[in-house]
Each structure stands twice: as structure tokens, then as C-alpha cells.
Design a protein that fits this description.
single chain; 116 residues; alpha+beta; 13% strand
Length: 116
């Protein structure tokens, strides 16, 4: 099994995603391009996937593994942000339990009881 690709936030919706080949420069992924399909400067995307997108043809998700990794990291960051907001609402402080820091584990939120 291959290791997950390392993703680093660059700016706004742009990320650097490591190549799976050792010694290669990371690829730049922009998740806003092509109506949020994303764009990557890796050969697989630029040669095989992007030409159809340029012509307005999208046969499902035209995403390379770097775009998928960047989307995954962006969604994980949103989950962490949401967990921080839950913590703030519950305690008045930005403190996360160890469980809340784990990927895909967000504390459950119970709706407050409203009394008339």
C-alpha cells in the first residue's frame, strides 16, 4: 500500500501536493479551477484530463490523485475548523480534545434544550 500524498496549503484554495515519485517537485493544485473540479500541473492531468475540461467536456470527475488529495485535506481542515467552533460554543474556549484532533472524528453536537 502506498503512503498518502503530503499536502501543504499554499494560498486560498491552492495547495502543493507531493509527487509519489521520490525527488520530484510537488505539484500545484488549484481547487477552484474548472468549476471546483480542480486543476493540477502533473502530467496525468495536463495531458489526459485537462484537454476535455478546456473544451467543456467533463465525463464525471476529471481528477488526478493530487486533486483528490488536496480536496481531502481541504475537507479535513474544514472538519477541524468546525470542531473548533463546537468547542468554542460548548466551553467558550478554543480547546480540542485528543479525539477531536483525529482525522474524521468530530465531537457529536447535541441540540440545546429550548424552554419556552
Amino acid at each position: 500500500m502506498t503512503e498518502p500524498l503530503q499536502v501543504r496549503h499554499f494560498e486560498a484554495w491552492r495547495f502543493y501536493v507531493d509527487s509519489s515519485m521520490r525527488g520530484e517537485d510537488p505539484y500545484l493544485v488549484d481547487l477552484e479551477e474548472y468549476d471546483a473540479n480542480g486543476k493540477c500541473n502533473c502530467p496525468h492531468f495536463t495531458i489526459r484530463l485537462e484537454p476535455d475540461l478546456v473544451r467543456g467536456i467533463n465525463r464525471g470527475f476529471a481528477q488526478c490523485k493530487h486533486i483528490r488529495a488536496a480536496w481531502s485535506a481541504a475537507l479535513d481542515a474544514r472538519k477541524l475548523r468546525d470542531a473548533c467552533l463546537v468547542s468554542l460554543l460548548r466551553t467558550g474556549r478554543f480547546e480540542l480534545s485528543v479525539e477531536a484532533r483525529q482525522p474524521f472524528k468530530i465531537p457529536e453536537v447535541k441540540a440545546p434544550k429550548i424552554t419556552p
